[in-house]
Design brief:
Elements: E1 2-14, E2 25-40, E3 46-50, E4 55-60, E5 65-70, H1 76-86, E6 92-98, H2 108-123, H3 130-145, H4 151-158, E7 161-164, E8 170-172, E9 181-185, H5 192-205, H6 207-229, H7 233-249, H8 255-266, E10 271-275, E11 282-286, H9 291-298, E12 303-307, E13 315-317
Parallel strand pairs: 3-6
Antiparallel strand pairs: 1-2, 1-13, 2-6, 2-7, 3-4, 4-5, 7-8, 9-11, 9-12, 10-11
Helix pairs in contact: 1-2, 1-3, 2-3, 2-4, 3-4, 5-6, 6-7, 8-9
The chain binds (R)-mevalonate (MEV).
(R)-mevalonate binds near residues 148, 151, 192 and 196.
């Protein structure tokens, strides 16, 4: 028996970090995916491996730990957290592959978590639906990161472009928003858990300054929702630039990210900002008619992806 699942990466347009404090956010699934395959092992060992991420571990299911055989499995904490919530002791071989750069701010951990849980549920014939899967994946992210909003796992499960409101209602956008985005990612991996904790301590140390910034980020996201509904690209771009300034205030910017954000604007992007947790990871640039120029302009030392939103969320089968 073999179970297969895949889930998409996500791009946060507005509201990273402020969403952790209950403010709204807008994010969409993009056309890069993580894939997980689970099959029975024909010896008594359980193996987790990835050819493209170049690692292999032997799972010690009795002690809920692992023995490293090869490489550095950066994403493994999410996989193990998902695995030990669902799996029994039967030996399996689990293979992960990912088109999403790990630690890039594009939701690799959420996509891997959602795909791992869906594959495990299929393998064990456990009933699930998108609501329960998004919930369980959020629990895994929270267990690994300490604090996590439900945003990344929701988007990776349901797909599409979504608005998460202040009271955590989740609304898909009905408009067809096909704006061209360029993603530039640095070689430095962002650590979401650490970045979220750093913002929290900045906020605790300077609450009277940072609390209004977080509220303003939420108000900005609500303006952005209206701009997206009207397909008003120049307003969206302006709001992205303001949002980047707020993220800088929260201390999640880096020299490399800044360089790409401003290079993108110089090459014709109408808006550019960090996407995701920051501290490394990626920037996004909205650049209608200028994608090639922007990609070339920011790619000198960095990696570039041209991504599109996709309606396709998690998919799984046996
Ligand atoms: C990470 O992709 C987004 C953050 O807002 C954290 C979260 O929402 O859990 C930084």
């Amino acid at each position: 028996m073999k179970a297969i699942a895949s889930a998409p990466a996500k791009m946060i347009l507005f509201g990273e970090h402020s969403v952790v404090y209950g403010e709204p956010a807008i994010a969409g699934a993009v056309n890069k995916r993580a894939y997980v395959e689970i099959k029975k092992s024909y010896n008594d060992k359980s193996i987790l491996k990835s050819y493209d991420l170049n690692f292999e571990v032997e799972l010690d299911t009795r002690n809920k730990s692992y023995i490293l055989k090869k490489g550095k499995p950066g994403i493994i904490r999410y996989i193990l957290e998902a695995f030990y919530r669902v799996h029994d002791h039967s030996p399996i071989v689990m293979t992960l592959s990912s088109e999403i750069p790990i630690g890039s701010g594009l939701g690799s951990s959420a996509a891997v978590t959602v795909a791992t849980l869906a594959a495990l549920y299929r393998y064990h014939n456990i009933r699930f639906n998108k609501k329960s899967l998004a919930h369980d994946a959020h629990m895994v992210e929270q267990a690994v990161q300490g604090v996590a909003s439900p945003l990344d796992t929701l988007v990776s499960t349901y797909g599409g472009l979504v608005y998460l409101s202040r009271n955590k209602t989740f609304e898909p956008f009905r408009v067809n928003f096909n704006a061209p985005f360029v993603v530039g990612y640095t070689n430095k991996h962002g650590n979401t858990g650490k970045m979220v904790k750093d913002v929290r301590s900045l906020k605790n140390r300077n609450s009277k300054v940072i609390n209004p910034v977080i509220t303003a980020m939420g108000n900005l996201t609500n303006y952005a929702k209206q701009a997206i509904l009207k397909q008003d690209y120049s307003k969206i771009g302006e709001l992205m630039n303001i949002n980047h300034g707020f993220l800088d205030v929260l201390g999640v910017n880096t020299v490399e990210l800044s360089r790409m954000v401003y290079a993108a604007r110089e090459c014709g992007a109408i808006g550019s900002k960090i996407t995701g947790a920051g501290g490394g990871g990626s920037i996004i640039a909205l650049c209608p008619g200028k994608s090639k120029e922007v990609a070339r302009g920011i790619a000198k030392e960095d990696n570039v992806l041209q991504v599109n939103f996709t309606k396709r969320g998690v998919s799984s089968r046996v």
